[in-house]
Amino acid sequence: MLLCGEMHYFRIPRGLWMDRLLKLKMAGLNCLNTYFAWNLHEPEPGVFDFSGEKDVDLYLSMAESLGLRIIARVGPYICSEWDNGGHPDWLISRGLVPRSLDPSYYPYAERWLRAILPIIVKHQGPSGGIEIVQLENEYFWGDAPYHMKLAELAKQLGVTAKLYVNVNRFVRNTIYTDALDLYPDPWDLNQVVGGIKDLVETQGGRPKILEYEGGWFSTIDRPLPTSRGSFPPDWTRMLLATALAYGSDVVSFYMFHGGTNFGYWTGRWITTTYDYEASIREWGELSDRYYKVKLITPLAEFIDGSETESERFDNGRLLVVRRRGDLRLMFYINNTESEWVDGNVRVRSRGVKVVPRNLNVKGVTITETNLSLLTVSDGDVLLYGDEGEGFSIRLRNGVVKSCTNVEHHPEGDTVVLSGRVPSELGGCLIEGKGVVRVLVLSELFASRTWFLNGYYVPSNIYLIRDGDYSNLTIEAKEGVNVAYLPFKSSLGRYMPELDMTRVELKVNIEEPKVSITGISRGTVNVKHIMELNGIKPLEELGVFKHGVYTYDTRVESSGLIGLVVHDYAVVVNNGRVVADGFIYVKANVNPGSLRIIAESTGHPNDGALPFFTGLQSPVLLGYGGSVTVGSWEYGLLDLSGRLKPGIATNYSHTAVINREIREYLPNVKWVKDVSELGKPNNAVVYYRSRIRIDGKRHVVLRISGHPGIIIVFINGEEVYRGHGDRPFETTVYGGLREGDVEVMIAVLRYNIKSIDPSPGKVEVDLWNNALADYSLGIMELGETSGQAQLPLSISEPATVKLRFTVNKPSDINSPLYAELSGRVHALIYLNSRLIGRYYPRGSQSRFYLPEPYLTGENELTIMATPAEEGATLNVAIRPYMLTKIIQLRP
Fold this sequence. Notes:
The protein is 12% helix and 44% strand.
């Protein structure tokens, strides 16, 4: 069985790869799942880089050195909330049909696979870790020819591992194995059970889950920890228990450790932090979720070779019994708000118990109990429950030798162990065909039982990193730390009743001293790129580098201006900040200089269409009011016959978006009433209306209420191809128009329940004029000088440099963050590395300062742009958490 955690080398500094991989293993997982990001490795066409922090060969070797199996997800498309879903920016053009066999895409995708797959092939075979290679990702819509071509290429290049796809039911039962991708809202277990059953019914075999909700990502417009709120750790425990209850043999948490979106690699609107509220936090701390997962992972060894004996799912209470020989594992999953009592088994609200029956160890059989099974280790049985909970354990074929914190009495041909679950542990030594140690642990001590080389250590300790009988490496938090060694040791109090030694450590931790040794400031440099007559997106100008761009021009009169930008922008008039915002920015200006500062924030991560950054309109002058578009006509491109469950299809989702919707326009049959379109299951719905414009006006369409993919046409000319409200109102510059103007919006929809009578609320803003000429530049860090103090006043774009040192003992682990506040936009550099982006209206204010990027003397350099007059910037550097490394020699 593969029990996996997803973590990405490109989101973790190379110096922390081993730390994060070790923590994954110590959680009881046996498999690493990772993407490989095409755009990271091919920054220029045909130029590949697998060195340094991109050394995937080393990353895979590290995982293998820990005994981890590996799932390699090589794309070409990966999603991952990564810029362009992994597609290189230089690939972007109006004619691109991505994720297809189209010549605008496939030859480049093939070149990528010819670069990455030979590295993967090196890690196959008896000595390698690669078990599965996944091609493409989340292609929900078929396109079997494209997928078969990818598989053919992989085989040609020597891939012998199993080939998987992630959620493409239309290629099930081909050369590929399909897997689930499950992100239900907390406590919606029906989606999980339904997905598992559907996969088994249509593909056969045991369930496979390549992406199982381990948290969620965050966006700049919604509060942390994730854009969907916070995910209860007990929900994650329930998810894993459910997967095992149904016999899944591939389960992978996305993410198990999220990490950081350094530089500009993140997808559009995604935060720098990719913490994901995952089991291992961005800065490496083990969360409550980690320990909840750790309670379930040891059960994986009992799932192989087991079968479902019975299942009952009633009003949120799920009981699945798995059988392997005489052993029964009873999965009690209580997805209700009240306690579940079944005989002597009590399961708390939103709780899980996995109760063994007929568990035989060294001739001793536990016929029944009301405690959860943690595992059987080295011939010992580890059970656990809630502290103070009454328990009973019925044994057959065993003689009690000694006990502590447990009572025992004979009952017929059995012995019953009973009592209340202690705060730490209790148990008995039982004589069978050898001595069996039966332990009763509190949930806390069960969740922090560490399995090492040859033995286990129940504890309340944060992490035991490594160890054998002669040495333990402990990472402890402040306070009383307790560990039980399953042998006699001079380190603590020996307990002959259990043949264990209780070790108690009182740990005090000194907080590191962060000293800011100097603050200086200066201006920014603006590097000239080109002169512009009219506006084109950056990519169409051959500018593919993300960054903060400037568009300099002049305005001759006072009044309201507007501009459409696919990014974040600040408007500076005569040296004063007069407005900032996303997508559609308006400002009142006076005659004089005008600078638009626009950050190229990135591209959507769905990889389904080309998307463009920078200014999308000229600076618009003379606002002339708005017109509401209504009185729609309707047309249809019916796709229902192209996607049939259980049938492989050549349907190309991306070809429909990027080509067919436009090419089908002359064939659209228009009707007056939406009901005349019938009831298609999948379709492109066309909406058409007309407005009257007196004189020549620049038009800006504002469309709200449609989050999916939309294509906008004005007088038959495509003016927008992209996403709806994600997360801001869709705003489209429609050019200079006059007279009767036809507005047409095409919306691609799947699994249609009903067709909306409009594409959302559509309004058209009218502008009288526009500025034509601009000087395009890019902002860069400037030199700093002098001495300054926090907080700083930021009246114009500035370079701010903080010099600091960190003084801490070598045995203290204290990951640091820089916390920013103030109404500024900022790029944050740690010792010349771009580690974060801060937005004045954004959700993230704390930015991880990775330990491998720190030196003795450090520089935190910030390129700050004010978002308003009187803006200030403040910075503080603090630790996320503190632990101490301790060496024990038992």
